[in-house]
Design brief:
Elements (H helix, E strand, L loop, with lengths): L7 E5 L3 H12 L3 E5 L3 H10 L2 E2 L3 H6 L3 E4 L4 H9 L13 E4 L5 H15 L2 E4 L2 E2 L1 H7 L2 E6 L2 H11 L3 E8 L3 H29 L7 H5 L7 H11 L9 H16 L2 H10 L10 H10 L3 H21 L1
Parallel strand pairs: 1-2, 1-4, 2-3, 4-5, 5-6, 8-9
Antiparallel strand pairs: 7-8
Helix pairs in contact: 1-6, 4-5, 8-10, 8-11, 11-13
């Protein structure tokens, strides 16, 4: 692979992450065709240099690589195998790179079907690092697929990821992403609790990340989000629905592990700590399905609490 090689890439899905992925690929010289049902999002990316496509099939027909950034296995299946989908323009020279976070078993089944019916390769590449990681090309990617297809996908991944690791066969990347999400769920909750503890003790929570840097408690979530939490900055960097979906998938996988279930019963617990974060995530989604409206609501509550303390 030549270092200066740039590919024709189709990106399907122009949400928060899809937009960041397209932006980074354009900035690093790739020719990007994009499709999304939201024409305003596509137009915004077109203004950055992307080429708008009228269908998934059209975008894939122009490209050697197809990147998916979608929210659910059912959506991925419809996009790949539905009318004017990926499969309609697929062949053995093309590689599908699924950066969605979906069920590992569904991934393995779809990858096998796409290969059998069209010859097209499939590499599951769920990510960690969010929008900042995508825009800077420093994502962590846990991949699943054959070693050969993993290397073929590197043409695109080398400009998106600083850590690109093959974890095993199709679906292994998705399983690793669920493990990542278990850690993230616990850490987000711990950082929120730590902010309140610091405030109660008269310590500036924004000073904590620097003070703990390099120690055993140091972690990326604390470094990125603790000052944000302390400032009551609820601007979204992702969707609570995605975390909830991943915790649900982790719960399903764990329910299939009879040894783990027996151990839980022996210890008198319902689930591991990470999965017990789920009710809080569900509460946020149930209160309001829109991340932006949730953000506005939390900001309003925070101000009410602050004003109440100031007037006391």
């Amino acid at each position: 692979m030549q270092d200066d090689y740039r590919a024709d890439v189709a990106v399907i899905g122009a949400g928060i992450m899809g937009t960041a992925i397209v932006t980074r690929l354009i900035e690093t010289g790739h020719k990007v065709s994009v499709f999304d049902l939201d024409t305003e999002k596509v137009a915004a990316l077109e203004a950055k240099g992307a080429r708008a496509s009228g269908s998934v099939e059209e975008a894939v027909s122009r490209s050697a690589f197809c990147v998916l950034s979608l929210n659910h296995a059912n959506i991925v299946r419809a996009v790949v195998f539905g009318e004017k989908g990926v499969a309609a323009a697929a062949n053995a020279d093309k590689v599908l790179i699924d950066m969605s976070s979906i069920d590992p078993a569904d991934t393995a089944d779809m990858a096998m079907r796409l290969r059998r019916e069209t010859g097209m390769a499939w590499v599951d590449c769920p990510l960690s690092g969010g929008v900042p990681g995508a825009l800077s090309g420093r994502l962590t990617i846990m991949a699943g697929g054959s070693a050969e297809d993993f290397e073929r996908a590197r043409v695109v991944m080398r400009h998106l990821a600083a850590n690109y690791t093959l974890m095993g066969a199709s679906g292994a990347g998705q399983t690793t992403k669920l493990i990542n999400q278990l850690f993230c769920a616990v850490l987000f909750q711990a950082v929120a609790e730590a902010v309140k503890l610091a405030e109660a003790g008269g310590v500036d929570p924004a000073a904590i990340p620097a003070a703990l840097a390099g120690g055993r408690a140091d972690n990326r979530i604390m470094q990125e989000f603790m000052a944000k939490f302390a400032a009551r900055d609820f601007s979204p960097t992702g969707r609570i629905d995605n975390m909830l979906k991943d915790l649900d998938l982790a719960s399903v996988l764990r329910a299939e592990d009879q040894d783990a279930i027996a151990d839980d019963r022996l210890r008198g617990r319902d689930s591991p700590p990470a999965l017990r974060c789920r009710p809080r995530a569900e509460g946020l989604r149930r209160d309001d399905a829109s991340s932006r409206r949730i953000s506005a609501r939390l900001t309003s509550i925070s101000r009410e609490i602050r004003d109440r303390h100031l007037s006391a």
